Amino acid sequence: MADLDEGGVAPGFELPKAGGGVGRLADSKGKPLVLYFFCKDGGDACVSEAKDFSRLKPEFDDIGVDVIGISPDGPKTKERFRAKHGVTVDLLSDETRQTVEDYGVWTKKSMYGREYMGVERTTFLIDPAGRIVRIWRKVRVAGHAEEVLAAARTLGNAE
């Protein structure tokens, strides 16, 4: 498991994209990126988070910042999730869990006294050079996308 810090280099990835194709960290080279990790397609908080980022996507686009969500669910599940909930941000599938492990978000969790491994809801703001500017761990969804947008504005249109 990675122990990433602000100022460090964001690990590269190449993952299947909902709707087809592949998403890579390298595709955002030269512009800022919001990379958020979520638990699963369809969970209430995951739906809210995806809808919030989608609602603000035009504002992220206006400042030249890409937004990508990643979870371990498969690309077909992600495509149904996008269609059902009107999600407009890119969603990538990490079925091998390599990327969630590289980013240190595959962690031991506990619910009702039962321990299990899962994704810790985490967001990374990555600058145009591929360095991590900000990390939000154990994200609470309400207001989170707005907070990320405010931070991204400091990097947007950095050309």
For the largest beta-sheet, the strand count, sense and barrel status come to: 5 strands, mixed
Helix content: 25-40%
Low-confidence stretches: none
| Number of helices, where a helix is a run of at least 4 consecutive DSSP H or I residues | 5
* Total beta-strand segments: 9
Structural class call reads alpha/beta
Strand content: 25-35%
From N to C, what is the helix and strand string?
EEEHHEHEHEEEEH
Radius of gyration: 15 Å
What is the first-to-last residue Cα distance? 34 Å
Strand order in the largest sheet:
5-4-3-8-9
What's the overall average pLDDT, rounded?
Answer: 91
Shape: globular
Describe the protein in words.
Helix content is 27%, strand content 27%. The chain has 5 helices and 9 strands, in the order βββααβαβαββββα. It has a 5-stranded mixed sheet with strand order 5-4-3-8-9. The protein has a two-stranded antiparallel sheet with strand order 1-2.
Give the key terms.
159 residues; alpha/beta; 27% helix; 5-stranded mixed sheet; two-stranded antiparallel ribbon; single chain
Task: Please give a quick description of this structure.
The chain is of the alpha/beta class.
What's the helix and strand layout?
Layout: E1 14-16, E2 22-24, E3 33-37, H1 44-55, H2 57-62, E4 66-71, H3 75-85, E5 90-93, H4 98-102, E6 106-111, E7 114-119, E8 122-126, E9 132-136, H5 144-152
Parallel strand pairs: 3-4, 4-5
Antiparallel strand pairs: 1-2, 3-8, 6-7, 8-9
